Amino acid sequence: MDVTIKPALQTNVPEITQLMQDFYAIDGYPMDQTKSGALLSEFIKDEKHGGVWLVTKEETTCGYIILTLIFSFEYGGWIGFLDELYIKDEFRGQGIGKVAVDFIISEAKRRQLKLLYLEVEPHNESAQKLYLDKGFKQHKRKLLAWKPG
């Protein structure tokens, strides 16, 4: 399988924001492509935020990965949040997600991250199985969120 994962460039922002639109639509999450494109462009400019990668198979884009970084005193340094990992529907079931997860684990080790978090939708059992098979564990804490406004 000829799967390549390469860092995203500013020129990839329109393509990635379209992929983001497709990803968000799966669960009906709202997305403003212009705003997301501007945020993605800002994010790509500075590696201290994390990283964005395109996932390709035989030169065809089949998905993307976004890793964000957070400093945690509890965990003793930098931790990662696998914010988004999306593989297009027509490429699922081909082992590409496994390659992407292996890549992000390797990247977390390279960056010497103390922990790697991710979220997965309760209905997405195949993603849950993939992550559990790769060594991720259910976290004992419940995720809460606050949003202004």
From TrEMBL:
<feature type="domain" description="N-acetyltransferase">
    <location>
        <begin position="3"/>
        <end position="149"/>
    </location>
</feature>
<dbReference type="Pfam" id="PF00583">
    <property type="entry name" value="Acetyltransf_1"/>
</dbReference>
<protein>
    <submittedName>
        <fullName>GNAT family N-acetyltransferase</fullName>
    </submittedName>
</protein>
<dbReference type="GO" id="GO:0016747">
    <property type="term" value="F:acyltransferase activity, transferring groups other than amino-acyl groups"/>
</dbReference>
<dbReference type="InterPro" id="IPR050832">
    <property type="entry name" value="Bact_Acetyltransf"/>
</dbReference>
<dbReference type="InterPro" id="IPR016181">
    <property type="entry name" value="Acyl_CoA_acyltransferase"/>
</dbReference>
<dbReference type="InterPro" id="IPR000182">
    <property type="entry name" value="GNAT_dom"/>
</dbReference>
<keyword id="KW-0012">Acyltransferase</keyword>
<keyword id="KW-0808">Transferase</keyword>
